[in-house]
Amino acid sequence: MRLITHNMLSCNIKGVTNGFPLRIEAGNVIEKEVEFNPDFLRHMFAKLEWKALVEGARSMGYAELPEDSPDAAVLESDEAFLKKLHHALLELHLEEGALVCPETGRKFPVNKGIPNMLLHEDEV
Amino acid sequence: MSSRIASIRLVSSHREVYEPCDDSFALVDALLADRTNLIEHNPKVCMEIGSGSGYVITSLILLLKNEVPGVHYLATDTNPIAVRVTKETLEAHGVDADVVCADIATGLDKRLAGSVDVIVVNPPYVPTPEYEVGMEGIASAWAGGENGRTVIDKILPVVDLLLSDKGWLYLVTLTSNFPEEICLMMRKKGYASRIVVQRSTEEENLLILKFWRDQDEVSHKEISSPTFLAHFSRSLSLLMEKRWR
């Protein structure tokens, strides 16, 4: 599971209002190189929750992202920044670990890079 | 020479996971037929709901990756074994997607709403008794309840939520699923539709439907149910006349 997907995951247990972002408990993180595509990053940027990305990256061992969300100028022309964003968003894989709901503490396991978001009967 | 779609010999398998069959091939044929449009469409986020063996999502990635770089691919399945098989199939073909074990798209739907440009679905469409729907294991891949519509009707509102303004849906159906009804339901939500591929096998009449948002269709014309149904039924009858036993 990469951070681009983590940024789109929230706890969907019935009644939970504050289920995003899920806290990452990183067991095993690997890196896989992906082709750099700045257009894609610019497109996705609007949908990202920046703080969740920074926190998530930190949990996976990468602390190079700026705390504050960058402005349009940086996104347009700062290649060094874009490379960091690329790395954090697309090249870090959580292979084993868990995603923890901030409201209930429920853990969604991640095995072989796949988060299991299935709910138990009493959570639906 | 790299293949344009997934190779059967590289597709991973497990006894509890649906192996690619006529319906899977028909869906991939539909994507191949629409390849030029898909490339022009320039999707940024593509998703398969119910990826099973991973054959379809892998094929989608392969047929787009050279011309459309920089796409986020996602696949979901409720079967915890299927998601692993999907991952294995992706890896065997040297491609990658984020795979999530989820019921349709739960967990993803809030944040991904309005963001997905292409969704492909080969749902459990076989008409079965209701109690067979959602049972653990491989039966969940085909058991579709009354008229094979139980899961399809659960999936469509989620798709409507996830699709971007320019989003497209490719859906596998049988003629037994009353596809004209599905198209009418979707039309009321603002979608136009067409049949991309039809395939008659000994057992099934498959229709691969494509949906896209078309507000003009909805606002300017009356949604005249009898006319629409009559037109669709006529097209269907023509197709069914060609059916061979």
TrEMBL record, chain B:
Q: Is the Cytoplasm keyword given for this protein?
A: no
Provide the primary localization: nucleus
Keywords, A to Z? Answer: Methyltransferase, Nucleus, S-adenosyl-L-methionine, Transferase
Record InterPro entries? DNA_methylase_N6_adenine_CS (IPR002052), Euk-Arch_PrmC-MTase (IPR052190), PrmC-related (IPR004557), SAM-dependent_MTases_sf (IPR029063), Small_mtfrase_dom (IPR007848)
Which terms does the record give in the GO molecular function aspect? nucleic acid binding; protein methyltransferase activity; S-adenosylmethionine-dependent methyltransferase activity
Residue stretches making up the Methyltransferase small domain: 41-133
Question: Where's it found, cell-wise?
Answer: Nucleus
Output one GO BP term: methylation
Source organism, top-level taxon: Eukaryota
Q: Name one GO cellular component term.
A: nucleus
Any Pfam family from its record, for instance, is MTS
Family that this chain belongs to: Belongs to the eukaryotic/archaeal PrmC-related family.
The name this protein carries in UniProt is Methyltransferase small domain-containing protein
- Native source organism of the sequence: Capsella rubella
